[in-house]
Amino acid sequence: NGAYTVKLAVENSVGCRDTLVKSSYLNVGNFKSEITSPAFSCKDATVEFRNTSLPTPTSFSWLVDGMYTMNNNYNGIYTYQFTTAGKHTIQLTNNYGNCTEVITKEIEVRALPEPAPFIANVPFHCAGHVTVAFHDTTRGVVQSAWNFDQYNYPLSVQATGKDVTHTFTQENAWRVTLFVTDANGCSNSGEQQVRIAYPNVR
Prior knowledge:
Oligomer: single chain
Radius of gyration: 31 Å
Strand order of the largest sheet: 4-11-10-6-7
Strand content: over 45%
Order of helices and strands: EEEEEEEEEEEEEEEEEE
Structural class: mainly beta
Largest sheet: 5 strands, mixed
Shape: rod-shaped
Helix content: under 10%
Number of strands: 18
């Protein structure tokens, strides 16, 4: 490693000679370019890629699936949101003075689970509090979570499980949100309306 001086000596057919010396003309170094990132992610999630190359390059750039993007690239940390599932290629180009090194890394983006319509068993009621039983019919998920409060943002988890109950305290067309998570840790949500209405007795 280090800077090397290059010397060129020439002689023509009549014996004339000359020498050209370039000091530090060649700069030889060991460069190890590296991308640190998760092996997979979920669709619509923002993924963080780190340029952990040694030594630190003088400049660098990123490509996603061969296309230049304008997403965050700060202090060697690059973030990108994948909107399609499948395998994607990240390319990192490091510049070390006059030297350039290009590496690629593949990341698998997994599809989100699709929540199936849930069942809401609303019992007969005249007035007052109404306790509704809910059942998640989604297959292939490891967690079901529920929110019953449409007026509170961000939506919080108020119950977990395939089968839960919730007590509504007044009439309304309530929006109930179901969050499902698969074995890959990918999550998605769906919502349905549950109407609580008291009979009109005259």
